[in-house]
Amino acid sequence: MGYNVTHIAKRLVLGTMLSTLSLLAFTAQAAFPDKPVTIVVPFGVGGSSDAQARVVAQALSKKWNQPVVVDNRPGGQTVIGTSLVAKSKPDGYTILYVAFAWISNQFLIKELPYKASDLSPITTLGTYPLALMVRSDVPANTVAEYIAYAKAQNRPMNFGISTIGASMHFAALEFSNQAGVPMVFPPYKSGSIGALNDLIGKQIDGIFEGAVFKPHADGGRVKALFMGLKDRMPGWDLPSATEVGLPNFDMTAWYGLMVPSATPNAIQEQLSADVRTVLAQSDVRERFAGLGIIPGGSNPKQFEAFLAKEYSKLGSFIERNRAQLSQ
């Protein structure tokens, strides 16, 4: 039986074409991202979350040579922004900025428009210790003095929060429990910046926020009384929770990134690696320090393990405080 030269030639041409197409497909995948990327932040403009996300976006834009846009979608206890990403195309071009409420909402909202499994963890961004900030005209300069003052008012203290179930909400509630100070928690659609503005304007009594608002404390527009960490935080001369008699105070904000779960694993791994690379850069770390953020940077499995621990911790906290959180 003879060989058909024409048939062999056709097969060679077809094989070459398939190899070329495979190479092009590989090259296209390896070139991610080749168009603008969006980071959806489910909080308002101007707060600590927004500021941090913009630092990361700028660093990634420079690394990728592609625009990285921050899209603020506040409201619905972060559900609006989260749902948007959960239902977006799973191609790595729409990333969700997540924080405390990602977990607390799973306990506080009965019917979420998405499942936790719809999104996959990419990396932690950092942790954000929270300080007790109160009105500048309050006749108290220590935590003990403030507790005495608050108890003497015969009314609940109004502590502003960015959203129900946010870290600043749980920190204020934990302080209320440990100090025996009754509180109510008006939420702000504009996020922590709205609460801060009302605190400066003496419309509310206090907030728990971090060092992004340190200039307002330094300028006397608010009083910062303690930092909610066991040890002092470098760069801010505030007593620690241990020093003010609250050694079990344990509510620190944290942040991370997620993408739709159907996003290809190769893109998830690249996103995680690229974000961790920019988080290690000295300029990014300096800007984070200015915001009072301790840089993170974990791989997806490490972030998943962290979320599991937070789920257990916050679940226990919510059950202990179910009555107050249901008001």
Report on the architecture of this protein:
- The chain is α/β, with parallel strands linked by helices.
- Helix content is 44%, strand content 17%.
- The chain is built from 12 helices and 11 strands.
- It has a 6-stranded mixed sheet, sandwiched between helices.
- Helix 4 packs across helix 11.
- The longest helix is centred in the first third of the chain and has 26 residues, at 5-30.
- The chain is globular and about 60 Å long.
- It starts with a helix and ends with a helix.
- Mean pLDDT is 88; it is low at 5-16 and 18-23.
Distance between the termini: 87 Å
Give the tally of β-strands: 11
Mean pLDDT: 88
Strand content: 15-25%
Give the biggest sheet: 6 strands, mixed
Describe the global form.
globular
What is the chain-wise order of helices and strands? HEHEHEHEEHEHEHEHEEHHEHH
The total of helices stands at 12
Question: Structural class of the helix and strand makeup?
Answer: alpha/beta
Oligomer: single chain
Strand order of the largest sheet: 2-1-3-10-4-11
Radius of gyration based on Cα positions: 24 Å
> What fraction, in percent, of the residue positions are helical?
40-55%
Q: Return residue spans where pLDDT drops below 50 for at least 5 consecutive residues.
A: 5-16, 18-23
List the SSEs and their pairings.
Elements: H1 5-30, E1 37-41, H2 48-64, E2 68-72, H3 79-86, E3 94-99, H4 101-108, E4 119-128, E5 131-135, H5 143-151, E6 157-158, H6 167-179, E7 183-184, H7 192-200, E8 206-209, H8 214-218, E9 222-227, E10 253-260, H9 265-279, H10 282-291, E11 294-295, H11 300-320, H12 322-325
Parallel strand pairs: 1-2, 1-3, 6-7
Antiparallel strand pairs: 3-10, 4-10, 4-11, 5-8, 5-9
Helix pairs in contact: 2-9, 2-10, 4-11
